[in-house]
Design goal:
By secondary structure, the chain is mostly helical. The chain is built from 14 helices and no strands. Helix 10 runs antiparallel to helix 11.
Length: 268
């Protein structure tokens, strides 16, 4: 999953902050490659920040992040240090170094929790987790962290564009987590572990009911409840399936299964 468009907020911060002449900017960026530019050399804050911005504009995101970090190290008490922290976080994100992006954004929030750019910092954390989500066959720790971070954005800043985007991503995260539960549930069902399978399918129905996996989860509950010898519970799941997804293939399959295995519970 990827959201590679550059957030406008980061560049608004830069445009408001930086006011330097073309000559000074050229001097800041001249005379060397990435190693020289990012090595520790004492420079005035304007020159150092301009060099970092120039690197970011050229797509040299790792070098930009290193230079923004230098702004804070060399000039920790200047107004530029706060801006550089956030721009460092964005640069690491753009470089797909998500762990450092998260660390930089968290550091910004720990020092400036009430800053006007705090919503953007929370959003950077959330999308840095979000873009690391793996396929459903792997451990879902990152997915859960993405869910929590996206939820934080929505809860803290509900009226912002970041919250709107976080809601869309949260739907996909929930679908992903439900898919993981379904994968495990099917494995248990194939292994004859009916109760363990039932718990997984039940979790999808109870906690991820708005996802695309719910109709199948209800059908699998019909299967597992019948295998456990509790047709009354199977009938309840089939009824929910009929009420909410009457045109789905899963309801047709559930109805056929109930007629075959528990005909007394099926209305003629």
């Amino acid at each position: 999953m990827s959201d590679r468009s550059r957030p406008e907020t980061a560049f608004l911060i830069v445009r408001r902050s930086i006011a330097i002449s073309v000559i000074a900017l050229a001097a800041a960026c001249a005379g060397g490659g990435g190693v020289k530019d990012t090595a520790y050399v004492a420079r005035d804050v304007d020159t150092l920040y301009a060099a970092a911005k120039a690197r970011l504009d050229r797509g040299q995101t790792k070098q930009a992040a290193a230079l923004f970090d230098e702004v804070e190290r060399q000039h920790p008490y200047s107004p530029w240090a706060r801006r550089a922290q956030l721009m460092s976080a964005f640069s690491y994100y753009a470089a797909r170094d998500y762990n450092k992006a998260i660390q930089s954004a968290e550091r910004f929030l720990s020092i400036h929790p009430g800053n006007k750019d705090a919503p953007y910092a929370y959003y950077l954390i959330a999308i840095s987790y979000y873009e690391q989500i793996s396929d459903v066959s792997r451990d879902q720790k990152i997915t859960l962290q993405a869910k929590q971070s996206l939820t934080d954005v929505i809860r803290r800043y509900p009226a912002t564009p970041y919250a709107s985007d976080a809601k869309l991503k949260l739907d996909l995260v929930n679908d992903h987590l439900a898919g993981k539960e379904m994968t495990i549930g099917r494995y248990y069902e194939r292994s004859g572990k009916w109760l363990a399978a039932t718990l997984r399918f039940r979790n999808v129905v109870d906690n991820y009911e708005t996802t695309s996996h719910t109709p199948e989860a209800l059908f699998r509950l019909v299967e597992t409840y019948l295998s456990l010898g509790v047709p009354e519970e199977a009938q309840k799941s089939a009824a929910v399936l009929e009420a909410n997804y009457p045109d789905s293939k899963w309801y047709s399959r559930a109805y056929s299964l109930m007629r075959k295995n528990a005909p007394d519970t099926v209305a003629s």
